């Protein structure tokens, strides 16, 4: 993709950072967020239909990327209305804007919309969301499919990327514990998923769009895994096997802190990508090693 104008809404997080790094090389970008945490961001609250519409239309983009969402499951359970406004209604605004401008829309969905009733889920398995976050994302996914004239919906798994400043997920939490001097980590053994490196994700989105292919895709790194295996790999990459140990616990151990319902397995398979020959996602261990080497070591 070259010489295109792309508007990226809600791009202040780890995924926005990756899209900025990958797409800015040959394109003109406008990246907005309510949290101005980088000099390449400008302010926009996409929950305001009028402001969102005006800002995008004034930029006259060739593509609209809707990246932002509330992703903290506990926050969503407690702040239900705000979750639906941010994760669902704002996507309706994005569809309206993209259709008005006759441009494609990129929407980011999540592996969390599945219920864990199977070991793995492909692009055509039927979601069954368990909590407010998952429902708000799945509602938006359905709306995009039914109403957008041309769209790309990509389901991500366990996101990794952004480094210490933007990574608020599992990997940064584990590394922060290690860096703070903790020698014994409590890690759950009953949660499975698929890591998704933000840089690989952004590159594969570009590859799909360059192929002029649209619709819904699972988009995660290859190799299925668990929270335990990810933690073990982090310790190995950091070279602290001799000083840091893992205590295996169930998710019940963290129930008071992480009280929102989560599927036991949210492992995705990139079946549609594979069948179309568009899968560029690397093995999660390779991606994790690169991420840690670039951001933490």
Question: Can you offer a commentary on this structure?
Answer:
The protein has 11 helices and 15 strands. By secondary structure, it is an alpha/beta fold. It has a 7-stranded parallel beta sheet, with helices on both faces. A two-stranded parallel ribbon has the order 6-15. It starts with a strand and ends with a helix.
Given as residue ranges, the uncertain stretches (5+ residues, pLDDT < 50) are: none
CATH class: Alpha Beta
Order of helices and strands: EHEEHEHHEEHEEHHEEEHEEHEEHH
Across the major sheet, the strand order is: 3-2-1-4-5-7-12
Q: Give me the Rg, rounded.
A: 19 Å
Strand content: 15-25%
* Number of DSSP strand runs: 15
Provide a count of the helices. Answer: 11
> How much helix, percentage-wise, in residues?
40-55%
- Mean pLDDT over the residues: 94
Distance between the termini: 32 Å
* CATH architecture name: 3-Layer(aba) Sandwich
The CATH superfamily name is: NAD(P)-binding Rossmann-like Domain
Q: So what's the overall shape?
A: globular
Give the total of domains: 1
The largest sheet is: 7 strands, parallel
CATH topology: Rossmann fold
Structural class: alpha/beta
